[in-house]
């Protein structure tokens, strides 16, 4: 049965949206997200919708869960999207996530972008990002996808220290991510992001500083840094439950965040979202900014989420079911949620407050403004910004961002 939230509904088989959802389409940022669900191995901390070949039990390229079937299903979903949206706007941004998109190889990544061009088109100056892992990326692949139109690489580095990578079950070695980042820039990629995870059991402050030094040596102009979360059902959670590893400590995570912020700030990076830093305004991830600013996007692929005009929906998770439904002429959407004005207001506060621009005071009700005043007095919102009519987090506020945002929703 579909997973339907309170206030939600099953998604229609034809994927058609309520007419009101299409009002204003094209006046807001529009992006395309593509979920590539394939991984060579599963990292111990990962709870994303990903599958190894063993998980899928693949026997041939014709298997409905195979990468070839996934690509054919993706083409069908993009055609469906063009029909549902009527006259879809050209994509301002494209983002391939996963999973490990680089496992598709240069030909597969090129085929995905060609399919998006054929159905949506790309706006002038579009940002086109693919995620990658160091061990499945080569200089030849990077040169080929740069030629195909990819402008940004987001690389899963996580750490540059052997024993930390081992705890995370990462397969690459120290230095590999730095080498790939440099190759991406040499290939003509305009921007390179490196992902870091801090707070891994056994990691020390010096380990994190070593990883940050590697980031700065790589030439990357964007960094995403996330505290380790032990998700239920993961191999890491089982190791913690058995007492093999300690649970990450909240105070340690806060200290590590401050190390990240200090090192990157001293090197000329500026935070623009709680977990993201860029060397320049132009290096900020425009695709993610679309999410945080209430834009529209079509999420294609197994388990992908979409949002258009206040309607959110999500696809079935398993690659075989995804491919079969599309082959049968049905939408792969499992369920959808029609956001109320209150829902959209809460999301505007929760997401907008995480950014460096914060929120205009005018979007808050009386209770929210009173809570903001208290947050200013508590040092969680910047007093100068609040005096100018905006709620902007201080660094202590960034450490408590979700709690501050909830207090402002009244």
UniProtKB/TrEMBL annotation:
Keyword Metal-binding appears in the UniProt entry: yes
Keywords: 4Fe-4S, Chaperone, Cytoplasm, Heme, Iron, Iron-sulfur, Metal-binding, S-adenosyl-L-methionine
Alphabetical list of SMART domains matching this protein: Elp3
SUPFAM superfamilies hit by this protein: Radical SAM enzymes
Pfam families, sorted: Radical_SAM
Main location: cytoplasm
Annotated Radical SAM core domain residues: 24-270
Keyword Transferase found: no
Subcellular location: Cytoplasm
Superkingdom in the source lineage: Bacteria
Function: Probably acts as a heme chaperone, transferring heme to an unknown acceptor. Binds one molecule of heme per monomer, possibly covalently. Binds 1 [4Fe-4S] cluster. The cluster is coordinated with 3 cysteines and an exchangeable S-adenosyl-L-methionine.
PANTHER family named in the record: COPROPORPHYRINIGEN III OXIDASE, RADICAL S-ADENOSYL METHIONINE DOMAIN-CONTAINING PROTEIN 1, MITOCHONDRIAL
Family under the similarity heading: Belongs to the anaerobic coproporphyrinogen-III oxidase family. HemW subfamily.
Annotated protein name in UniProt: Heme chaperone HemW
């Amino acid at each position: 049965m579909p997973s339907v939230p309170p206030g939600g509904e099953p998604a229609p088989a034809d994927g058609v949206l309520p007419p009101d959802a299409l009002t204003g389409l094209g006046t807001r940022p529009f992006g395309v997200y593509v979920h590539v669900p394939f991984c060579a191995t599963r990292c111990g901390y990962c709870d994303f919708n990903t599958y190894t070949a063993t998980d899928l039990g693949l026997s041939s390229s014709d298997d409905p869960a195979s990468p070839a079937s996934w690509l054919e299903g993706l083409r069908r979903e993009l055609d469906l999207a063009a029909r549902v949206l009527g006259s879809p706007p050209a994509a301002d941004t494209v983002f391939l996530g996963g999973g490990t998109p680089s496992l598709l190889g240069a030909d597969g990544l090129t085929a995905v972008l060609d399919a998006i061009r054929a159905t949506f088109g790309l706006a002038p100056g579009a940002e086109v990002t693919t995620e990658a892992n160091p061990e499945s990326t080569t200089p030849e692949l990077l040169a080929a996808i740069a030629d195909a139109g990819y402008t940004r690489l987001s690389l899963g580095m996580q750490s540059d220290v052997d024993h930390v990578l081992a705890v995370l079950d990462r397969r690459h070695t120290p230095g590999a991510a730095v080498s790939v980042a440099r190759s991406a820039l040499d290939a003509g990629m305009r921007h390179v992001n490196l992902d870091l995870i801090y707070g891994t059991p056994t990691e020390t402050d010096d380990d994190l500083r070593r990883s940050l030094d590697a980031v700065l040596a790589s030439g990357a102009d964007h960094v995403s840094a996330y505290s380790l979360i032990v998700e239920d059902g993961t191999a890491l959670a089982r190791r913690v439950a058995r007492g093999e590893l300690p649970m990450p400590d909240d105070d340690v995570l806060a200290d590590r965040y401050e190390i990240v912020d200090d090192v990157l700030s001293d090197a000329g990076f500026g935070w623009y979202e709680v977990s993201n830093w860029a060397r320049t305004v132009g290096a900020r991830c425009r695709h993610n900014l679309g999410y945080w600013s209430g834009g529209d996007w079509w999420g294609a692929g197994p388990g992908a989420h979409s949002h258009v005009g206040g309607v959110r929906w999500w696809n079935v998770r398993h690659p075989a079911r995804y491919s079969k439904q599309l082959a049968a002429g049905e939408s792969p959407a499992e369920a959808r949620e029609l956001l109320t004005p209150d829902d959209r207001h809460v999301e505007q506060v929760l997401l907008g407050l995480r950014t460096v621009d914060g929120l205009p005071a005018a979007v808050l009700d009386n209770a929210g403004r009173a809570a903001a005043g208290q947050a200013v007095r508590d040092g969680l919102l910047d007093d100068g910004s609040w005096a100018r009519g905006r709620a902007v987090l201080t660094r202590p506020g960034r450490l408590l961002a979700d709690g501050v945002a909830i207090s402002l929703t009244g």
